[in-house]
Amino acid sequence: MAIFLLFNYKRLLCCSCLFFSVYCFAQQTTVRGKITDAETGMALPMCNINFSNSNTGTSTDRLGRFALSGPNYSSIVISAIGYKTTTKSIIPGKENVIQVKLEKNQKQLKEVSVSGRRAKPYRNKDNPAVELIKKVIAHKDVNRPQSANYLQYDQYERVALTLFNIPPVLVNNFIFKPYRFMLDTVDGKLSSEVYISEKHYQQYLRKEPSKSIKILTAQKEGNIIRFLDTAGINIYLNRLYGDKVDIYENNIFIINTQLLSPIADHAFDFYKFFITDTIRSNTDTLVELSFIPRNKGDLLFEGHLLVSLNGNYAVTSCELNVDNQININFLRSLKVNLDFQKQASGRYFLTKSDAKADFGILKDKGFGIKGERAIYYSNYEIDKPRPEAFYQEKSEQILPGSNRPDTAYWAKTRPDTLPKKDAVFYRRMGQLEAMPSFKRATWIASTLAGGYADLGIYQVNLSYFASYSTIEGFRLGGGGRTTPKLNKNIYLEEYVAYGFGDRRFKHNASVYYSFNATPFYRYPNDYLKISQQYDIGLPGESTSNGNFRTPISSFQAGTSKYYFYSNDFKVDYVKEYDNHFSFDAGFYNRNQQAAGLLTYTLNDPQQTMVSHITSSVFTLSLRYAPHEQIYQNTDERHTIKNGYPIITLVANKGIKGLFNSTNSYSSFTGTVVKRFYLSQLGFADATLLGGVILGKVPYPLLNISSANQSIIYSLNAYNQMHYLEFVSDHYVGLNITQSFNGFFLNKIPVINRLKWREFLSFKILYGGLRSENNPALSTGLYNFPTPVAGASGTYALGSTPYTEAGAGIGNIFKILRIDGIRRFNYLDHPGVSKYGVKLTLNLDL
Question: Which of 494, 479, 481, 499 is nearest to 565 (CA)?
Fold first, then answer.
């Protein structure tokens, strides 16, 4: 009986336990769902979800999803940095599926105040917020993924551009009426997306020796503004919206400007910090730090940081905004959200970066442009090196078949849900591209923007069609070039012009053979060029100042008296590599004839006049621009400035007797151009240049210092120097232009509203002329031109270096810069001025 009772007791106990377990499971409350931004519909990662009055909680993943289970609860609390805390009711003991839209917290940091009779002044000393930010700064290297010896991760990025608040009068006319299906209405305003790009990358970084490899695995694009350089647009937009917003860097480059990070080494000297919240999750305790600029006009952010108190003081979330008083043109708003996720190692790595900016001509209303760049980072791997041969590959690679226009691929691999407006835009683009009227409109826009009218196999050049100079008078010209539609390897280019003053025709005829089937006006170059040109030139004209035959350059500060006609035959081989090293090896034969008041007169007793000078020269030019990014239009290539130097070396060898060449010499020149970013003090552009000529040569073959008599300011020419004023056979120079980005003017009441910007420049050129090349000391040379009829004459650089300096105010009406220039020496030369004023027209952010 005892055995029977014991057996039944154990069975009863087991059944009771089983019943109790089933009962408890039945009473378990489960909640799952997704949290999004109420305004944009974007998923919100790193939101904290807790059962009310409980320590049981979780956080959303990068797609805004979460799942939470616990005992018998009736509500959950959802909190996130920058958003209003929300409480949602749930059904206890059931499985709840919810969708939550969080509204942004509209509190304004600039209105932070302290109650009492008198607000205490803000101080860093004994400020717990400052003490905390100092700990964050001290732990930056620990928390950066880049501190690992090896790092790899996947990256998905999406860039979109939208025109909004489009005036109805613009879209209701007969020209735009066929395209109204491209429009959307948002808050009663017309808008239209014009560009979207999606890309997948695999990133690999090695710390020592430094190496980064970026592999493009897939890409897709929709583009209405295709008349512009598509590749350049993508590069420019990426830099505009932050190529990579790294909160741990001292400076964050965004909107073409360096803004100081709120956790820069000395951020507490520029920002005010406040502890505004404490958030506890099931894994960590987080403190919300809010920050504002000490001076609203400086290039600084305002926003919030969420900092972990787990001992590493890592940033787990961040919101960056800018005040609309900041000195950035046309900017209405800028917001950057960074989300970090805790890894298995306990460190927080960046998982999402979302940058949005609105631009408009008017501050608060009217037509504008909205841009967004969203980047997702995933699959981090730390200290897992690849084979050594892998790191010998190119830094930027594109996998074959990376163009993936198919929707199914992206629906499967995209880390988030494509916003509805972007999906609709892709569909509309297919309809738009099939419309003949759109093709015609694109052709017209491309012609106006690029200066070339594309006729299929031939493009007509509409640029430089008219100009004026004292010797040519009014000049008319035209030309063009062939396209890949005629032949992908062979290209022709030519122009013809006529001067009504000198009554001469000028011309150029060039033929290119492209070894990589890429047009000579596209990157990368790999071509052989043969050309013959007859045209007019200015001695010492700076190429950085552009072609003097353009309409704008017809306006001169003073009159130029020295010209020459040049008949050139050239052969060049140009090769560019992926690392932006390039070379140009060539030969030219030049027959140069003096014109205007310029003469070639031998310094013999008879003062023999020489009609022309002939040179046959072999040339080699080397250029290296590490990490260069370019924007390319139909005819020119523009380097998007960064902090890396551009180095150019040129060697020439003249051969006497070859094709009637009259001189034998060697010349070597070099330049180093670099931009220095100085955080709050803006940036400085510096150019170091130098050269030497070996051998005896007449003055037309000496180094003629770059001068500028145009009213347009030149960055690298000497703006108060006359053409052909100085010659030398050895020289070294330094040009520096400092842009302060309004750092000082932003602090002056009233003036700060104008958003003007300050510029300082200084240029110095030291050089000389050996006795063998000085016609006053050596025979068999040409006499220097003498001052006559307003011309300053030609001189050798003496023991005193030529110097000039300038101060300027820029961003006047957002497009104009005015520089006052002072020349410090050689003021006894006829016709020169001690002071001058130059203009620059430039529409920039």
Answer: 499
